[in-house]
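Obj.: predict assembly geometry.
Materials: sequence records (below).
Method: joint structure prediction, all chains together.
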Amino acid sequence: MRIFSGIQPTGAKHFGNYSGGFRQYAATQELGEAFFCVVDLHSITVEHDPKDLRERTLDLAAMLFATGLDPQRSTVFVQSHVTAHAESAWLLSAVTSYGQLGRMTQFKEKGERQEFVSAGLFTYPILMAGDILLYRTDRVPIGDDQRQHLELARDIAERFNARFGDTFVVPEGVYPEVGARIMDLQEPTKKMSTTGGTPQGTILMLDPPDVIRKKVKSAVTDSGSEVRRGDDKPGVTNLIDIMTVATGETPGAIEVRYDSGGYGQFKADVAEAVVALLEPVQERYRELRDDPGELQRLLRIGADKAREVTAPTLEAMYERMGFVRLR
Ligand code: TYM
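Observations (raw structure tokens):
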């Protein structure tokens, strides 16, 4: 079984990324042949600082290993090191509907926040489809906010297969049962995000323990004092989900333990659970990040493997679409 996922090097990574991304990557790498990609090409679709992109790319590579990816088991690489990604995006644009791209929620939301809306922001889901399809991927571990993009990738695969012959596997998304959409602590009806959320409501992977405690303690809660999940309790539901992600306990067990005991102790314990989860990750991260030579070495191994695996798929795409190949 092939597994593929990607994560952007823009912005500081946060607990939502941990829940929908990092922890699922570490878990799914056990299921088969896994590829995890730092999608730097995606990060130029909104305004970016070149120096920042360079640093963030290495930061994110270090974080992928710090959260449990095993370089012996998984292929971890940077998207721009494997040119097949950019090439496949162009080829797949021929089987992508303009109308469908315009209906992407992320395009509409991100577009509204930009002064300059780049063409790349619009065509971004085609690049993402290429990422996935090039590996003939079976499973894509992602959070809920990527669901629409994954559906589009499936449509693109089906359209290509129908027009040019069976080339791609139609991939399935893998979403966490709890924590597929972690919400902002201050505005629990919005997803946690460094671009769309509030700074105080976003737990960063690299936040020091005291900052985490402060953010969790000041999280917005709902009326009543019962600790339970429900549509009428977005704030408390989110905190229960966060505790579930941090500890592996079920939401039910957490509800029973805190019951109607009020929010004070509950919040304090949620904060400690997150600190206990992230402290060792931060320690490993610092060690890895302090050794850029080793990161480069691992990323080179990853890129070589990714090139080898994608070459035949890209070749088949060119062939079937009618391009003359040099023999
Ligand atoms: P990105 O970089 O925004 O996010 C990386 C992963 O984190 C998940 N995520 C969340 N999960 C739960 N709650 C949240 N609040 C939350 N915020 C983010 C995302 O769902 C994602 O799984 N377009 C993708 C990157 C990408 C990709 C791919 C993913 C490019 N090519 C191919 C899979 C396969 C993105 O911007 O993710």
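Conclusions so far: The pocket of tryptophanyl-5'AMP is lined by residues 4-8, 16-17, 19-21, 39, 42, 128, 131-132, 140, 142-143, 145-146, 149, 180-182, 191-193 (CB under 6 Å).
To do: check interface contacts against the pulldown list.
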